Structures are given as structure tokens and as C-alpha cells.
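Homework help board

Subject: predicted structure for assignment chain

Our instructor gave us this sequence and asked us to write out the predicted structure in C-alpha cell form, then describe one feature. I got the C-alpha cells but I'm not sure how to describe them. Can anyone check?
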Amino acid sequence: MHPYGIGEHVKTLFIDMDGTLTDLAFDRSFFQHTLPRAYAEARGIGHDEAIAHVTRELAAIHGTLAWYSLPNLSRLFDVDLTALTAELARDVRLQAGALEFLERAGRRYRRVLVTNADPEVLALKLRHLGIGGWLDAVISAHHLGAAKEEARFYERLAALEPDCPRAGVLIDDNLRAVAAARRAGLSTITITRPDLGSAPHAEVEGPAVESVAHLLPHL
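My C-alpha cell output:
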């Protein structure tokens, strides 16, 4: 029996991007530092006030597509996040072993990237990371009209990908997305340390590994 639940019936790995293939430190820094700083400069307010406002507004939309949408966030905070993101995208880094994981997984499984990332951010990151050749398909939650934290995402994913849910496995660091996928009948593997600058997730249900590199011996 496979130690992480990838049985012989599995044909497709549905793989998250941010925090699974990449180090989530970039995204954490963007939302906790870059965005508040840009908002403070645009509004002429103090850094602490900007952090409090940004944190409050983001909490209200967390887990929805609005949280991941650059156009929505740009309107919400009156900041040109498209230009800002394009400038910073070069700082995104793959997790150690991520490229080897994609290459080895492709010998046996279909590799489908499933991400909540804004389509423009997704395109920037894929271009910078150069991993398109190691993916069989790329699906943005924005094109499905539902975030991975929502049941609708998996209903719509199943309409595109016949291996969802019975012959697929979601590999993701987002605990709410993992929970939603499990409710939809999709097997999951949780990445417990998406951000190398922070502690691993403390409580995780179901199969879990610290990073995709830990899956290499089992592919």
C-alpha cells in the first residue's frame, strides 16, 4: 500500500502551486509587507494603520476568489497591484525538489496544476519558474468561477477532468482547500511546510508531508 494513499487506481495528480511547488514566503511577504506598504504610501497613512486596514479587509474575503483577484484587490486598496506584482514576480522560488518531483511524477501520472492564483499572476510565475513543460494542464480557479476552498470548484473540475475525484489526488498546502477536496471525494496529501520561513502546520487531517520532495521515493 502506498504510504500516502496514491493507489494503483490514481491516474492524475492535481498539484497546487503557491506553497506546494513554490516557497510561500513570497506570498506571505507580499500580503503582510508589500501590500500594506503600498497602501500606506497611496493613502499617506502610518504603517501600523495600513497593516490593520489591509488585514481587516483581507479577512473579510478570505477563501473566496476576491481574495486572489488582482483587479479586485487593486480596487479595494486603490493600488496598482498588477505593476507591483510584475516587478516582484522574479523573487518567486521553487521549493527544493519541486522540479524533480514534476519530472518523476510525469513518468506515471497526469500532472494538472490547480491554483487560486490570479490568471495574470499565474502567467508571470509560470514564465519566471519555467515549469510549463512539466505540466500536462493548468487550471485556474478564476476560470472555473470558484476558489479551491469551495465545493463548486471540485464539481466544475470534475466536468473538465474525468479523474476527479475517484482517480485523482490533490497535493496542496491550503488546509481549507484540502478539507473541501476531501468532502468532494478527492484523495489529498497536505504539504505541511509551505513557507520555509515559518513553522509547519501543526494539525493536519489525512496523509501529509513537509514538502513534495518527501514524495520522491514513492513515485
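Reply (TA_rk): Your C-alpha cells look well-formed. For the description, you could write something like this. The first helix runs from residue 25 to 43. That's the kind of observation they're looking for.
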